Each structure stands twice: as C-alpha cells, then as structure tokens.
Amino acid sequence: MPVEEATTTRVIGVLWGVLMFMQRRRGAIVGANQGVPDTLERMTTSRSSIRRGYLDGPTGQIHYRRCMGRGSGGEVGEPLILLHQSPLSSTQFEAVMPALAAVGFDALALDMPGFGMSDVAADGATLEDFASIISAGLRAMGWTSANLVGHHTGAVLGAVFAAANPQAVRKLVLNGFPLLGKAERDHFATFYFGPKDPKPDGSHLLIAWENRLRSTPGWSDIRLMHRYTVEALHRDGSNWRAFPLVISADLEAVLKRIEVPTLMFTNTGEDLHSATQRAHGLRPDFFAYAELQGGSHDIIDEQPENWVREIVRYLRA
C-alpha cells in the first residue's frame, strides 16, 4: 500500500474512533444511584451502578460520576473523591468504582475543568483554581470531609487541596506523584495531548496517537491506547492546561505542608515510579508507601482488583 494511502487509512481510523466516542458520550445524564453490586465478579466488572450528573463549581459546570455504596448498617457509604490524570476524565475510574461502592464507599469521580465533560477553566487558572472543584464536590454532596484519591495530575490537585484544607480531608492517596527533577520536567514537557493545531491532512491525529504510545512505557492493551487517545482528542486541547502547571510547580513545598494521613502509591512499571519514591523519601516517617508490580500509568484499568485492594487497605487501616 502506498505511504499516502496508508496514512489516509490510519487517519480515517482515528476519526472514526472520535465519532464513536462522541456518540457514546451523548447518553443520558442521570442522578446518583442507590444500588451496590453484591459479588466480587460484579463489583469489578459492572458499570451499570455508576450514575452521572453535573454540579456547580467555580469554573462552571463540573461533570461527575458517582457510585454510591452503603455501610454495613445500611447507612450512606463513606465519602471518597477520585481525581483523574491528564488528559483523561472520570472515565479512568469506571473499572474500580463499583468495587469501591461494594465495600462501603460513596465514590465520586470528578472531571477536572476542561477535561471530560466539565466546563473549561478561565485563562490563567492556577493549580489552586483546579483544586477548588474538590470544595465544590464536597458542598454538592453535603459532605464536610472526604477521603481523596488522586492519580498523576489528580494527585497534585489532591495534595494542593489537602495542604490548604486539612479539616476537609480524612485520608489522602497520591497515586503516581510527579516530584520531578529537571530532566524529567523537560521530558514531560514534550507530551502532546490533543489537536492544539489541527492540520488539513489529519496528521495531528497521528501525532496524538504516537504520543500516547510513547508516553505510556510498558503499555499492553492496544484498545486501551485507542480509547484514551480518542478521549485526549475530545476536548480540542483544553485538557492539557493543567499539565504545564503540574510539571512547573514547587511540589516539594506542597508535600511539606500536608498534615493529613497520606499514602504514596505507585506501580513499578509506570513512568512516575521513581518520582513517587522520591516523594515518599521526602517525609518517610509521615507518608505511608505501597506499590504494585508491573503495569503502566494505566494501572487502574490494567489491575483494577489489585488497585482497589491497596486503596481499601490504606483507607480502612
């Protein structure tokens, strides 16, 4: 097949994926759910118990997913807020939310401003502005405090919020924390998430695809790579705005201000494994530490049961 034809075929394939993704996202948005899966098999595979909605935030409407578990006495589950990585959305937690609800958590996953289906943050938004959606989530649910679990960019927002609002955080899990050196900052600064500059020949779509593969060392699921490339393309570039803030922030200072119980959590195959170990080493007598073996930064989809086990073990310790 000629090179031009092969390139056109690949671009059409990516465009078709975008169309299918958008079609799926047009589904009805409904309120919080009351049901809880009652078996291990269902809790790790069933996503029908996840409900979606919007809440008002400082940046506009914030889209969320909620999976509402119950305590052993039938009471509403323990509050848990989940914060995703860049450039994804709360879809990142679909594989684990039923499991968390099944063991008694009321799991709320938020789309950060400009990500997923949330409104875009204003120009010049800071990490504190992005993290303010946590306060909005607490207020909308009627919670005074919650456990926080953040992954990559979400971990940074969780840390920023916890450092400033310790009374609102029960326990904090920082999954893949980017405490970076200069060489690492320079490396991550080359990442390309979406069509900032669309090209008539569609080559920007191929760049996004190739960047997703390059930025996921150890990837093993090509369908997952496709799904997350399409999601990155979904927002026309607004889902990269938090990333430069993350890689340029003084996160060491943020970590030193945290006063709530905190777990540094990683997996050996992800690109922030060393950075997370470095973060733990900053306060080894205060931060707990756990790691899973293998995987990539898509560990939540790759090892959902193992991931949930470690999260629950720490939050219930």
Concise overview:
The longest helix has 23 residues, at 3-25.
The CATH superfamily name is: Alpha/Beta hydrolase fold, catalytic domain
Provide the β-strand percentage band.
15-25%
Structurally, the number of domains stands at: 1
* Annotation, overall tally of beta strands: 8
Shape call: globular
Low-confidence stretches: 1-9, 18-45
Taking all Cα atoms into account, the compactness measure Rg is: 19 Å
Spatial strand arrangement across the major sheet: 1-2-4-3-5-6-7-8
Distance between the termini: 59 Å
Query: Which fold name corresponds to the CATH topology?
Result: Rossmann fold
Number of helices: 14
**Main sheet overview:** 8 strands, mixed
SS-derived structural category: alpha/beta
Order of helical and strand elements: HHEEEHEHHEHEHHHHHEHEHH
Task: Specify the CATH architecture.
Answer: 3-Layer(aba) Sandwich
CATH hierarchy class name: Alpha Beta
Task: Round the mean pLDDT to the nearest integer and report it.
Answer: 85
Residues in helix, %: 40-55%
